[in-house]
Amino acid sequence: MNRYRGRFAPTPSGPLHFGSLIAALASFLDARQAGGEWRLRIEDIDPPRCPAGAADEIQRQLDAFGLHWDGPVLWQHARDEAYQTALEHLAERGLAYPCSCSRKQWRGYPVYPGWCRNAVCEPDKPVAWRLRSDLGLCPVIWQDRLFGEQRFDPAELGDVILKRKDGLWAYQLAVVVDDADLGITEVVRGFDLLDNTPWQRQLQDALGAAEPRYLHLPLITGEGGQKLSKQNLAPALPTRDASVRPLLHAALRALDQAPPEALATAPVTEQLAWAVEAWSVARIRPRSERPLVDAQARA
Question: Which pLDDT value is given to residue 294?
Fold first, then answer.
């Protein structure tokens, strides 16, 4: 088997928040307990969403929480050639096609109905590139490490966009190409990305890439049951040690790891040493959502 290699892959649309910390911490602990590598990838393929300085702040936040990555940071903005090569490979096999349709045109359908699969409907308009989900791996089945067997019919998901009309690369293709090139063997991320996995499995199969194992984590929700996110103005993670210590302890509790109460004031290095040794996926309760612990009040 390949040596364990995991990753944390934030979008620098703003600083990390408590929900981001859960994903980063779980992927870090999973990698470190296995004696593997933990890589950092900055998913900055959408420049309008990535304000200046956000990626640097993310790295400072990870460093403050003791989540030190291995090797150089991988930046998606520098990966255009790799993504283009993958898209051309898919197009040559008839698995990717140009599409002129707008969301407004197919608004009454649950998913894009594939009107451009055989020919572009409006050749004089800009085109995006889509994956032909009907010709790929079907059904898509995998064993999630927390939520068990997952089974999807790609026809119910539609033909996902791989390259946008404005020339920017879409998430699904970029993440698969990057994971393959980094040799990622384990993907640990939030439950909100579970239904992205079928498209990614189809792309891995079409590109001859290895299939990583998946662990999807329960989402942390705030007041009103909304997922913690930058769009919902979730508070940014602190970088001051006095605030970091209780917040790291709260994240371990949110992951159901039951850290000793005395650890809440212990240095980050001591908390992480305990957490790496004690890490157990079996302790995590497999709910799709998890209410926010009173982390900010303790910080």
Answer: 43
Q: Give residue for tokens 């998606």.
A: 76
* Helix, strand, coil % in the chain, rounded to nearest 5: 40, 20, 45
Angle at 158 between CA 154 and CA 164, to 5 degrees: 130
Order of strands, sheet of 161-163, starting from the edge strand that comes earlier in the sequence: 96-99, 128-131, 161-163
Which of the residues in the chain have pLDDT under 50?
1, 293-299
Mean of per-residue pLDDT scores for the chain: 91
In what helix (H) or strand (E) does residue 124 lie, and over which residues does it extend? none
Phi-psi region of 177 (alpha: psi -120 to 50; beta: other; left: phi over 0): alpha
Contact 30/8 with Cβ under 8 angstroms? no
* CA pseudo-torsion sign 72, 73, 77, 82: positive
Residue 248's pLDDT is 97
The pLDDT, as a whole number, for residue 222 is 64
What is the rounded CA–CA span in Å between residue 232 and residue 226?
A: 8
Tell me which amino acid residue 199 is: W
Burial of 149 (0-12, 13-18, 19+ CB in 10 A): exposed
By CB atoms closer than 10 A (0-12, 13-18, 19+), residue 117 is middle
pLDDT tens digits, 174-207 = 999 999 999 999 999 999 999 999 999 999 999 9
Q: Provide the H-helix boundaries in 185-292.
A: 197-207, 241-254, 268-278
- Looking at residue 235, its pLDDT comes to 79
- CB 4, CB 185: distance < 8 Å: yes
